[in-house]
Design a protein that fits this description.
This protein is mainly alpha-helical. It has 2 domains: 11-57, Homeodomain-like (Arc Repressor Mutant, subunit A), CATH 1.10.10.60; 71-184, Tetracycline Repressor, domain 2, CATH 1.10.357. Helix content is 71%, strand content 0%. The protein has helices at residues 11-31, 38-45, 49-56, 59-71, 83-99, 101-112, 118-140, 148-165, 172-184. Helix 4 (59-71) runs parallel beside helix 7 (118-140) and helix 7 crosses helix 8 (148-165). Residues 1-7 have low confidence and may be disordered.
Length: 187
């Protein structure tokens, strides 16, 4: 179980989190990730190092928390009017973002500082939420669609495997092939 306590939304806790996350992002761009330390982040955020240690446990858990926030989608998935093209567009964008150098670094950070698996679960939930939106639109249009877990298993999981272990074999066509195979397969 993580040493991070449950945090109430809003108030001082939210301000501290926002300040610390902003400090990490600023310092990463100014001095580089390898130069980050808890005291440096605390000083920039205007908090004590003990605040960071109490809330996040260590630098790696803090970087994991920041990475998860960075992996949160900023917009709903594109609505092209058809399930196949909606899912293909989303899969291509997901692959592109996660396979980028910064995306791979965020994935690595999210997993390295995640002793209880909650950050990995949150990253999975982000993908599942986006997929649910796409599948919900398809259902509203009367299109048959697989369930969210099937899309995670047949599209997201292979993409993540390739990102982590075979990045030289990734391109947008790979994402489109996964979606086509998913939608062409019998239920």
């Amino acid at each position: 179980m993580s040493s991070r306590p449950m945090v109430r939304p809003g108030g001082r806790s939210a301000r501290v989190q926002a300040a610390v996350h902003a400090a990490v992002r600023e310092l990463e761009s100014e001095v580089g990730r390898d130069a980050l330390t808890v005291p440096l982040v605390a000083d920039r955020a205007g908090v004590t190092p003990s605040t960071i240690y109490r809330r996040w446990g260590n630098l790696q858990e803090l970087l994991s928390d920041v990475a998860v926030e960075r992996l949160r989608p900023e917009a709903p998935p594109v609505d092209t009017g058809r399930l196949a093209s909606d899912l293909a567009a989303w899969a291509e964008q997901f692959l592109e973002e996660m396979a980028s150098a910064s995306g791979r670094a965020y994935v690595r950070d999210a997993l390295l500082g995640d002793p209880d698996g909650s950050n990995a679960g949150q990253c999975s939930a982000y993908a599942a939420e986006q997929i649910a939106v796409i599948l919900g639109r398809a259902a509203d249009r009367g299109e048959g669609a697989p369930d969210v877990e099937t899309v995670l298993d047949r599209v997201v999981a292979p993409v993540m495997y390739r990102i982590l272990f075979r990045p030289d074999l990734l391109d947008a066509a790979y994402a489109r092939r996964l979606v086509a195979a998913l939608l062409d397969a019998p239920a």
